[in-house]
Fold this protein.
Amino acid sequence: MAQEAGASDGLPTVSVVLPVLNEAAHIEQVLSRLLAQDYPRHLVIEILVVDGRSEDGTRDATSQFQHRHPLAGIRLLDNPLRITSAALNIGIRAARGDVLVRMDGHAIPATDYVSRCVDALQRTGAANVGGVVEPVGRTPFGAAVALATKHPLGAGDARYRVGGSAGDVDTVAYGAFRREVFQDVGLFDESMVVNEDYEVNVRIRAAGYRIHFNPSIRLQYTPRGTVGDLWRQYFRYGWWKVETLRRVPRSL
C-alpha cells in the first residue's frame, strides 16, 4: 500500500535522478508528475535533472520550470559525456537522499510511484525495486509499437513489460535503489552506452542483494513515434545486449 501523505515517521528521504537528452517536448510533463507525487513532499528532497548538453531547448525548459517552482528542489546538472550511465553516476554522486529513484525523460510516473517504491523497499528488504512500464503511443506508429512491446511475443517474459505477480526478478526498469548498494557494488559502468541498468543489476545480484518487482508500481512510457527513431533505438539495444553478454555471460 502507498504511504499516507502525512505519515512521514521512519520514512527515508528520496532523490530523483532524471537523465535527459533533447527532451524539450516531454520534460515539463515528467517534472510536473514528479511534483504531484503523494509521498511526503518534504522527504522528496531533490529532483536532479542531468542534461547531456541538449540542443533542443531542454535546458531552457528546465530552467523555466525551476523558476516557476523555486521550492521544488530541482537542480540542473551537466553531463558532458552525453550518455545515460554517466548521467546516472553524476546524479548519484550529487544526491543526498537515502533512496535514489531513477526516472526517464519519456516516462510519466503514477502519482504514487515514489511511495510505492519506498514501501516495496521497506517491506521486502530488496536493494532495487521497480514495477510495470506501460507504453502509451502518441502517434499511430507509436501506438502500434506500444501494443507490440507489452505483448509476450514482442517483449518476452520481462515482468516489467508484460506484468505478473510480485517477486524477485533479474532486473527492473527505472528502479528505486537503496543508496548504500552503490557503495558496495560500484556505480554504473560508463563504458556501457546502453543496457547500463541490466549490467548494474547483474552486479547487484552477484553481491547477494535482491531485485524486486511489484505490479502496483506503475509508470507510462512514450515509445518512439517513427520507424527511423525506433530502428535506431533497438539497433543500439541489440548491439549493447550482445556486449553485455560478452562481458557477463552468466547474464544470459
Summary: Strands lie at 14-20, 44-51, 74-78, 99-102, 107-109, 128-135, 167-168, 176-178, 211-221.
